[in-house]
Amino acid sequence: MHTFLCAVLSEDFEALCSRLSLQLTLPFEQLKSTTAHRRMRFEVRGRRLDVLLSPAHRCLLLRQAPREEEFFVVPVSATKLALGLRAGAEAGLLAEVVHSLCGEQGLHRSTAADPGWPDFDAWEELVLHDEVRVTEEFAPTPPCAQENAFWEEALSARDDEIRALKWRIRQLERAAAEPATGEPQGQEPDLQPAPGSLAELGRWACRYAERLVVLPRALKGARKSHYEDPSRVFRAVQYLAEDYWRHKCGELSLAENEQALLRAGVSLSGSTTASVAGMQGEQYFVAYRGERLFLDQHLVRGGGTDPRYCMRVYFTWHAASRRVVVGWLPSHLSNTLS
Predict the structure, then answer these.
(1) What angle do CA 201, 202, 208 make, to 5 degrees?
(2) 338 to each of 167, 313, 332, 334, how far by Cα in Å?
(3) What is the DSSP string of 274-296?
(4) Could you point out which of 165, 256, 310, 326 has its C-alpha 20 to 30 Å from the C-alpha of 179?
(5) Phi, psi of 147 (to 5 degrees)
(6) What is the extent of the structural domain holding 217?
(7) Are 36 and 137 part of one and the same domain?
(8) Which residues share a beta bridge with 49?
(9) Torsional sign, CA 4, 284, 145, 15
(10) Is residue 186 part of a domain?
(11) How far apart are CA 182 and CA 26, in angstroms?
């Protein structure tokens, strides 16, 4: 079980150490002024407790043996610390102390996934070699803010659908007002070529509103993209809205879908496993229609991870709405292998 708590300000590091020292009757107070790291071992309530304290790096790690519970106070940015607890189903010494601490300090359990932090021994190596590095992107989000972000993305996706439907209505009204062209009724008008800039992806994708939705996170990735051939991204999204959609709806055979992939110049495969995705925070998960969806599929073109030459389109099929939900593109998301 992995429990990650709200991030706190770096200035709270000494206060947290002091509070823990009182609850565990450990001599942290006399170490507050030191800048060197210290590794210590204590007996607390008949249990062995390993402690790694490094004020210079704002790191405090505790490990209880033999249960192997671990509690972290580690930096996640220049101004924030994160608290994390790794424990089994049966609460041990550290779980009890941490829950008590959180109650006193008004902290709340976060729903953020395990960001894949190093274990106790690995942290010690980082401290010894002065290799502790921090970045905002790994900071766990407080529950209320995370919930707000979830609904913000969900509502934004719904707004995109509404705009797409309005676009479709205007297209139909325009077609109805134009003189007949002699084409059979129901035939789709030829689509205009895709724009040259990925910044136009959202507007362009509106034509497929009944089959596909590109979520705000993916549109943001598109706007910031350095991919050298935007037309390939448009072609990949077009494949999802046309051939893949027909395949999922039973209108296109597996062999025909394979041919469509060849024409689009991409391959289709699973993005990663659910367990690996859980180690990457929320990268592989999106909010859509009040649901939390796993981006279990991706289109692939190019190897490596260089954003100029590597293209990935991460998506999933939403059976209830019969839509393809695109959650990220065109760069490579993190996993344990790349």
Answers:
(1) 95
(2) 39, 16, 9, 6
(3) HHHHHTTTTTTEEEETTEEEE--
(4) 165
(5) -65, -40
(6) 144-175+195-328
(7) yes
(8) 42, 64
(9) positive
(10) no
(11) 87
| Cα–Cα separations (whole angstroms), residue 240 to 171, 208, 212, 227, 311 | 21, 10, 8, 19, 15
Query: Nearest Cα to 67, choosing from 51, 83, 84, 87?
Result: 87
Structure tokens at 115: 């960001």
The Cα 69–Cα 74 span in angstroms is 16
Q: What CA–CA distance (Å, rounded) separates 297 from 300? A: 10
Structure tokens at 25: 């009757």
Count CB neighbours of 151 within 10 A: 11
**pLDDT by residue (tens digit) across 51-94?**
888 888 888 888 887 667 888 888 777 777 777 777 766 667 77
Evaluate whether residue 234 is within a structural domain.
yes
Q: Which of the four pLDDT bands, split at 50, 70 and 90, describes residue 162? A: low
What total number of domains does the chain contain?
2
Listed residue (117, 132, 37) closest to 83, CA to CA:
117
In DSSP terms, 268 is beta-bridged to 299
Place of tokens 């210079």: 56
Residue 123 token pair? 């942290």
pLDDT digits (tens, 9 = 90+) for 292-303: 888 999 999 988
Whether 108 and 226 share a structural domain: no
**How buried is residue 208: exposed, middle or buried, by Cβ count under 10 Å (0-12/13-18/19+)?**
buried
